[in-house]
Amino acid sequence: MYINNLKGKYVQHLLSVDDMSEDFILEIWTNALKNKDTNSTSLTGKILTNLFYEPSTRTSSSFYSAMTKKGGSVIPINNVKFSSVTKGETLEDTIITMSTMSDSIVLRHPEVGSAERAAKVSPVPIINGGDGDGEHPTQTLLDGLTIYSNNNNNLDNLNVTFIGDLKNGRTVKSLVKLLSRYKNNNFNFISPDNLRYPSDILPINSFESDKIEDVISKTDVLYVTRVQKERGSDHNYALTEVTLSKLNDKAIVMHPLPRVNEIPKEFDKE
Ligand code: CP
Fold first, then answer.
1. Cα 113 vs. chain centroid, distance in angstroms?
2. Residue 136 alpha carbon to ligand 1 centre in Å
3. Going by CA atoms, what residue is nearest to atom 3 of ligand 1?
4. Tens digits of residue pLDDT in 174-220
C-alpha cells in the first residue's frame, strides 16, 4: 500500500505525520471505525516485523492485535537485548535482514531519524513507532481520531493544552503537526523551563507558561504527558483533582500512556 502524503506524492513509508494527507488520514479513520469489531482474512499470508529497541506495551501489542485479527502474522522482536543487536549488528543490517522475511516493519528506536535511516535501506514499508524524541505518527492517528470524534468530526477551532515533558514528548510533536493544518487552533504549552517545547518548531498561535492555571478554564483538549526519565528528564508533576475540576464540562483529557502519576486515578471514568 502507498500513502498519499502532504505534497500530493505517494510514499511507501510512514515516518512522520507529514507522510499522510488529510484525506488519507480520514480514510484510515473511516475504515478503522467501520471495521473495528470485525476479523477478516485480508492480511492472510502477510508478515509484519515488530522491531522494538525501546520498551512498548501499546504500540507493539496493537500492531500484533491488528495483524492477527486480519489473518496476518507477526515476528516479535520486542526486546532487542535478545537479538543480534547485542552482538553489534547495525540498524541497517537488521532492517535488510528482516525485510527478506516480512512485508512490513514497525520500528521503535531511541534515535531521532532512525526510521528514516531504516527506510533508506528497506525494500518493504517502514512504520515509525517512535524515534527518540522525534515523532510518533501512529499514536497521532489515534489521538487525532479521539479529538475528531469528540469535536463533532472536526479538527478546527480548538484550544489545545499540552502539559508535561514537551521537550522529549514525541507524541506531542506529531499531534501538533497534525492539528496545525486545521483552522483557528490555539496551542498552549505548559512545562517547567527545562522541559519546554523546542522553540524552532513552535506553531503560530502558541502560548507558553509553567502554570496550568493560566489556561485550564479555556482548554478544549488537555493533553498530558509523562516526564521521560529515560531521556534524562528529571522532574515530577501530578495534576490534582482540584486543578482538573477547573476544566470546562466539554473538555477532554488525554494521555498517550504510560501514565506514572500525572493524572490521579480517581479522575478516570469508566
Ligand atoms: N503510547 C505509546 O506509545 O505507548 P507504548 O510506549 O506502550 O507503546
1. 15
2. 9
3. 59
4. 999 999 999 999 999 999 999 999 999 999 999 999 999 999 999 99
